[in-house]
Amino acid sequence: MQFFRLYQYVVPTILFPICYWLWLIRYQHDHRTTILVLSIPILFSYIVPGLGTNWLKIWEFHTRWRLGRFRPQHGFLFGTATSLFGLFCLGFPPRDFGLLELVRSGFIMGSVLAFWNWLYDVHAIRVGFLAVYNRAFAENRGPAAVATEYCPVFFGTFGFCYGVQIRVCEYYLVELGRVDLFWSLLFGCQAIVLTGPVIAYILVSYLTTGESGLRSYREESSAEA
After folding, report:
1. Other CB atoms within 10 A of residue 168 CB
2. How confident is the model at residue 138 (pLDDT cuts 50, 70, 90)?
3. Please, what is the angle between helix 182-209 and helix 31-54, to 10°?
């Protein structure tokens, strides 16, 4: 538990400035591209988990500082860690930009984020730092089953989208210098990552359980207790 309590504050306060600096060096002090690449996971992890905790009530963080059931620093926490994975896993932009590179980058990021977020959530659920009120939770199948019900597909899809978007942004903003596309890329990338992982999760949930996966079992668990 102590690890999660410290980690949630160390990453936004210490690692985020370092992360920004590393991306800035990668893009030769181009703040525009750096902000775009970092904003994708940061905004995503404020909007989607924010709705999942306070509206759908599927997730809940057991920490001192919260906005309802949601951590106020969560976006910078997840966004920093995710963008660091992207920085080190994808390497510098290749000279050959094409479909194969997009698929490769998406596959790498999807695989990395699916595994590490699954591992993180399993242990966070086990120690009681994170609560996830999904079907596996209602069936008392344990932390690994609870995390497996959503982590691989949800974070894997997000990672794939993010890996592709990093390469696309690098190609148009860095390689071609198309700064006029900044806002189009920003809104387009956000629209994709806000909908793609959720749609993928719902589809997989319907195929495996016959439900959308958006139902919270929290109240039923409280009533049974």
Report:
1. 17
2. very high
3. 30
